[in-house]
Write a structure and sequence with these properties.
This protein has 15 helices and 17 strands. With about 475 residues, the chain is α/β, with parallel strands linked by helices. The chain has an 8-stranded mixed sheet with strand order 3-5-2-1-8-10-11-9, sandwiched between helices. The protein has a 6-stranded antiparallel sheet with strand order 13-14-12-15-17-16. A 3-stranded mixed sheet has the order 4-6-7. Strand 10 and strand 11 form a beta hairpin. Helix 2 packs antiparallel against helix 3, helix 3 packs antiparallel against helix 4 and helix 3 runs parallel beside helix 6. The protein is globular, with a radius of gyration of 24 Å. The relative contact order is 0.10. Bound molecules: adenosine-5'-diphosphate (ADP), aspartic acid (ASP) and magnesium ion (MG). Aspartic acid binds next to loops. The site of magnesium ion has 3 residues, from loops.
């Protein structure tokens, strides 16, 4: 029997109306997919509020924490009252209050200590999904859809890298099978908390912000499922972020490689880690709009039908970056400069988004998040103290307030003329290209531009996109 995993994002369960729609979609698709697993995010904005509360607690402002708690209670109460006939007499309301109490106690502990550990932050951040999943399950139940909330701490086993935990394949696969298969066999719909995991010892972890997409793809890969659907608040993956380019259109089909590149280079619509598990299992993934379920959507597959190499499918951007430049004519003779540069950066725990072309003078440039730049430059100056003194390296500096703009499409890098069209359009719009990516995957072409030119760059390039052409 065909198995489907569907994931609802925060806005898709963020209000009584949204959760009502989500529940109706589950009921509707259960008719055609008897084995249905639901993964849900927290109500929109809840994870942000929880983490903000943790910061307030550390700063000693428990009044702010109390206010956040009240607001969270109100948000959930609104759904309980609108969608459950017993309202706040429903047992799930007590469970939600319990979760909020636990959250509040954790915040109090942080206030006493004056510090928040990554482990404590994960316990707090997981509270959102630990309320939304039981709530959605209950809404389904009262509508006659047999549903059971499942805390992903029972099935997603991770390492202890809190806030960006890495799932361990063997135990997770086994737990997914043990816990979800029997529920499906009984005709139940498991409603799993997205984003959440736990270490082998049972300590709560999270998979990183936006990680519910990843939860869904892990469950799909290791169940395994026949398809995964990501329900969100836009009509699938579009030619650009519709918030930045209002003319953006839905891209009906993308390859795994294309969507991985888009996600990596900033398209928030899918968490970057979502793709790998489903690629390996060859499971098709759909991105659909909860608020327009019969409207256009995106299907992500191994090979795109009618793929025309060199077509720009979509554009994306990452803001708030800095480009670090290590330069000096003497560098040519110094062995291992690149290795030492990136070792020094890695030691600061910063991930490098893009490494760019050297100029005529010997130099190494790379792009990192803006808020890490100070530490990175310092680490490089320490590493190259001797070379700087000898003037083998002239300067280590950073260009701040830059953004990466990426065009994505199969064969983009190898098709003559594409780069010309891109640079031409940017030139006409008066956008200066600071650097171009080197050696990235052939499905993407990334450029560094000034932060305040990024939106202009997207708009100038958007007429070149043909993601919706079949
Ligand atoms: P969810 O809460 O459902 O996970 P997210 O906010 O994480 O939703 O992701 C959906 C958002 O991603 C959209 O509202 C849109 O603004 C943004 N986005 C960025 N790039 C794209 C793109 N290329 N296509 C569609 N949406 C995009
Ligand atoms: N609720 C989590 C977040 O806001 C995970 C998710 O929504 O995907 O990051
Ligand atoms: Mg998301």
């Amino acid at each position: 029997m065909a198995t489907l995993v569907m994931k609802f994002g925060g806005t898709s369960v963020g209000s009584p109306e949204a959760m009502d729609r989500a529940a109706r979609l589950v009921a509707r698709y259960r008719e055609t997919w008897p084995n249905l697993v639901v993964v849900t995010s927290a109500l929109a904005g809840v994870t942000d509020a929880l983490l903000r509360a943790a910061r307030e607690a550390v700063a000693g402002d428990m009044e702010a924490v109390r206010q956040i708690r009240r607001r969270l209670e109100d948000r959930h109460r609104a759904v309980v009252e609108a969608l459950l006939p017993q309202g706040t007499q429903d047992p799930v309301w007590f469970l939600i209050q319990n979760r909020l109490d636990t959250f509040f106690r954790l915040a109090e502990a942080m206030a006493v200590l004056g510090e928040a550990t990554p482990r404590g932050l994960d316990a707090i951040a997981a509270t959102g999904e630990r309320m939304s999943a039981p709530l959605l399950a209950r809404v389904l139940e009262v509508r006659g859809v047999p549903a059971v909330a499942v805390d992903a701490a029972q099935i997603i086993v991770t390492d202890d890298q809190h806030q960006a935990a890495h799932p361990l394949e063997e135990p997770t696969r086994a737990r997914i099978q043990e816990r979800l298969k029997p529920l499906l066999a009984q005709g139940q719909v498991p409603v799993v908390t997205g984003f959440v995991g736990a270490t082998e010892k049972g300590v709560t972890t999270t998979l990183g912000r936006g990680g519910s997409d990843y939860s869904a793809s892990l469950i799909a890969a290791w169940l395994p499922a026949d398809e995964v659907w990501i329900w969100t608040d836009v009509n699938g993956v579009m030619t650009a972020d519709p918030r930045l380019v209002p003319e953006a259109r839905t891209v009906p089909q993308l390859s795994y490689r294309e969507v991985a590149e888009l996600a990596y280079f900033g398209a928030k619509v899918l968490h970057p880690k979502t793709i790998r598990p489903v690629v390996e299992a060859g499971i098709p993934l759909r991105v659909r709009n909860t608020f327009d379920p019969d409207g256009p959507d995106t299907l992500i597959v191994r090979e795109r039908k009618h793929a025309v190499p060199g077509r720009i499918m979509a554009l994306t951007t990452i803001p708030r970056l800095a480009m670090v430049i290590v330069e000096g004519r003497g560098m040519l003779g110094v062995p291992g400069v690149a290795a030492r540069t990136f070792a020094a950066v890695a030691a600061t725990d910063t991930s490098v988004l893009m490494i760019s072309q050297a100029s005529s003078e010997q130099s190494i440039c790379f792009v990192i998040p803006e808020d890490t730049v100070e530490g990175v430059v310092q680490a490089l100056e320490d590493t190259f103290q001797r070379e700087l003194a000898r003037r083998d390296i002239d300067r280590i500096w950073a260009m701040e307030k830059v953004a990466i703009v990426t065009a994505v499409g199969e064969g983009l890098r190898n098709t003559p003329g594409v780069a010309g069209r891109i640079f031409g359009a940017l030139g006409q719009a008066g956008v200066n290209i600071i650097a171009i990516a080197q050696g990235a995957s052939e499905v993407g072409l990334s450029m560094v531009v000034a932060q305040d030119a990024a939106q202009r760059a997207l708009q100038a390039l958007h007429p070149l996109t043909q993601g919706d052409a079949v």
